[in-house]
Structures are given as C-alpha cells and as structure tokens.
Amino acid sequence: MTAYEYNVIPAPNRGEKDKDAKTPSDRYAVAFTAELNRMAQDGWEYIRADVLPSEERTGLTGRSTVYHNLLVFRRLIASSGKSGKTVQHATPQPEYPVAASPVRQPEPVPDAPAAAAPQSADRTVAAEQKPAVSVPQGNATPPAPRSAPADN
C-alpha cells in the first residue's frame, strides 16, 4: 500500500522582481515557480492549488468569511514491511490516469449537399428565368400610409 504525507502552504501573495518579468503576471509566475522549486528540493510533489473559506473574527463580535489560496504538496512515506526492511514504492502515478483507448481513424469528409454545391453557369440562367416562389399579385393588401404624429 502506498502511503503519502501532505503539506499545505499558502500561495504567494505578491510577485518577485526578475529581469525577464515585465508584467505583474510574469512576476507572480516567478514567485510561484520559486515556491514550487523550493518544495521540490525537499522531495515534495506539487498536487494542486485550492481556494478554501475560513471564518475569521472581525472586530469584537463580528465574523466574516475569508478565502485563502493554498498549495498542496505530497511525498511518499518510507514504510517498513513485516520483515523490518524499508519498502521502496514506485513513482507516483497521476491521480486520474488517461484511459487507454485505441486511436480512431479520421472520419472521411462528407460530400456537400446538392443545394450547397457550386452551380454551373447554365443552371444559374435557368434559375433566373423561373421564380422559385410564386407571389400572388391580385389580392395583396397595400401597406397603410404613414402619417406624422399630431401635435396637441
């Protein structure tokens, strides 16, 4: 059985100055990278960042909810077996392994429908001679005349 120990630390609040970091996002990335590398030197593996609520006192009697940005790390614990020897564990696997599904072949491109296909010049001329939809001309009601609003 694989056993881990976890360590949770606050995420950096501010960025660090660096000659290549020009924007605030770049400076924050430098601070975050430095923190990850510092923990990795001690054998900690970065798992994720979490934002968790905490209820804290405000004033004498008030309480408010504050959200903290936390970084979660883990590392293997060397456990001793029944024989008293230290058991070495394999390297940790991802928490959510990718399913091993076979690679699908690309699907063929379907043929364009006849309505969307390019028309030849002789078909276009025939379409112009016949209207596609017949509109009755005799019983059409003309629109009402527009008049300016009356001033009172």
Automatic annotation (TrEMBL):
Residues 1-24, 81-152 are annotated as: Disordered. Residues 14-24 have a biased composition (Basic and acidic residues). It comes from the Bacteria. Residues 81-91 have a biased composition (Polar residues). This is DUF4177 domain-containing protein.
